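Q: Please design a sequence for this.
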């Protein structure tokens, strides 16, 4: 079986080369098997290795598939055993903690930016006014009259 990254899957799907996908339960995880128009089968792999991309949660796999434009497929849970779920390693737990902290920090930053915008005493400009001002500034720069 061949391997395919998410980007390769996206490109193959856009080109019409994907005939079907199967979300297959194997042990405690799920793999994405891909059927191609050329008749070869592939498995979704990690970006920088030939190791299959394993999903603990089938919803995460479905989200990835939908993100590449695939919304119809098959599901095979015959070899799935939730008791075989592999516990996350220390590195994986740390990475998830960092991701959560980053999301929280980003949310705090975004809320502060929005509040600063709401508190700004300057008058609001419409999009059209802003674009007209920008075009004027660009024209001045292009003609050299705006250079000092």
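A: Design:
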């Amino acid at each position: 079986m061949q391997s395919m990254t998410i980007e390769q899957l996206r490109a193959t799907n856009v080109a019409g080369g994907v005939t079907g996908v199967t979300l297959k339960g194997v042990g405690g995880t799920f793999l994405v098997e891909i059927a191609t128009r050329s008749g070869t089968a592939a498995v979704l792999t990690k970006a920088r290795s030939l190791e299959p991309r394993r999903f603990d949660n089938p919803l995460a796999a479905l989200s990835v598939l939908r993100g590449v434009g695939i919304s119809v497929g098959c599901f095979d849970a015959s070899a799935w055993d939730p008791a075989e779920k592999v516990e996350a390693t220390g590195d994986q737990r740390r990475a998830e903690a960092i991701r959560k902290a980053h999301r929280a920090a980003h949310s705090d930053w975004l809320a502060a930016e929005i509040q600063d915008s709401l508190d700004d005493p300057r008058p609001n400009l419409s999009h059209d006014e802003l674009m007209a001002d920008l075009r004027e500034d660009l024209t001045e720069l292009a003609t050299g009259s705006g250079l000092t």
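Q: Thanks. Anything notable?
A: The CA atoms of residues 22 and 101 lie 34 Å apart. DSSP finds four helices and five strands in the chain.
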